[in-house]
Design goal:
single chain, about 280 residues, mainly alpha, 2 domains, globular, ArnT-like_N, glycosyltransferase
Length: about 280
């Protein structure tokens, strides 16, 4: 009897159930009475509401206009489907972020367990995500960050699994392509990481592996589909309003201005927003 409790606590099944239940409770708890508390969340929620009423599923409108090309459509497809089930509400708007947050917790546990073969190490690696911070806060908002984080995490998991089962390379490419369809060029990071990792792990031989190259090709086909469709529909207008705007800049203009203290604004936002309640 004395050994049964430690054995249960260290059980993989128990730890996964605890993590999934806790993350569902934390990410979706008290969402019915909160509404959407920031502008970006409301902005994305409106885009999701309009995605199925626009002329094309590939065109994300805002307030009925197509002049905004800042976001690919995949997150809005997913939230739009949730709207179909639960109706348009603040709860439905954050639902997909919360579910993807739960899946990230599970994938973190699974990836760590695969690498280290230790249940407690895996549990702690996943459990730390439930502590107050950026991840917890983002999982409770109608934002794109957690959706992107899920596809990046899933692609990394599939990349590692592909070392022993090359069929996972295709799933790796699909997840990376979905990451691009979530937040544009940021979604290509799994491909860059994958190429560097494969070269480091096994040299050029691993990079030219047919299954791995097929996965990379799949990621480009899936990820660039939105670019192609919108370029064919809107031409240079799409190029100018997606690739040449401030949100695509790697280095903000303020870095080179006299107002260098603006970076401390992030600390102010963190102290104001990232609390457990």
């Amino acid at each position: 009897m004395k050994n049964s409790l430690p054995g249960m606590l260290s059980s993989k099944i128990f730890q996964i159930l605890f993590l999934v239940y806790s993350s569902l409770l934390i990410f979706l708890g008290r969402q019915l009475d909160r509404g959407i508390t920031n502008f970006d969340g409301a902005y994305y929620a409106i885009k999701a509401r309009e995605i199925f009423s626009s002329d094309s599923l590939w065109v994300a409108t805002w307030m009925g206009t197509t002049r905004f090309f800042d976001n690919p459509p995949l997150p809005f497809w997913l939230t739009g489907l949730v709207y179909k089930v639960f109706g348009v509400s603040g709860y439905a708007a954050v639902f997909s972020s919360a579910i993807f947050g739960v899946l990230i917790v599970y994938l973190t546990y699974s990836l760590c367990n695969y690498l280290y073969k230790d249940n407690w190490t895996s549990f702690l690696a996943a459990f730390v995500l439930l502590f107050p911070g950026l991840f917890l806060d983002s999982s409770r908002r109608a934002m794109l960050d957690i959706t992107l984080a899920f596809f990046v995490t899933a692609s990394m998991y599939c990349l590692i699994k592909g070392l022993e089962n090359r069929k996972f390379y295709l799933l790796y490419g699909l997840m990376a392509g979905c990451a691009v369809l979530t937040k544009s060029v940021l979604g290509f990071f799994p491909i860059v990481i994958g190429v560097v990792f494969m070269f480091w792990y096994g040299g050029l031989k691993n990079i030219i592996d047919f299954r791995f190259l097929a996965g990379v090709a799949l990621s480009i086909i899936v990820g660039c589909s939105w670019y192609l469709v919108n370029w064919l529909m809107f031409g240079d207008l799409f190029i100018d309003r997606h690739f040449k705007t401030s949100h695509m800049q790697l280095i903000p203009n303020k870095i080179f201005s006299n107002d260098t203290l603006y970076i401390f604004g992030y600390l102010k936002d963190m102290l104001r927003n990232y609390w457990p309640w």
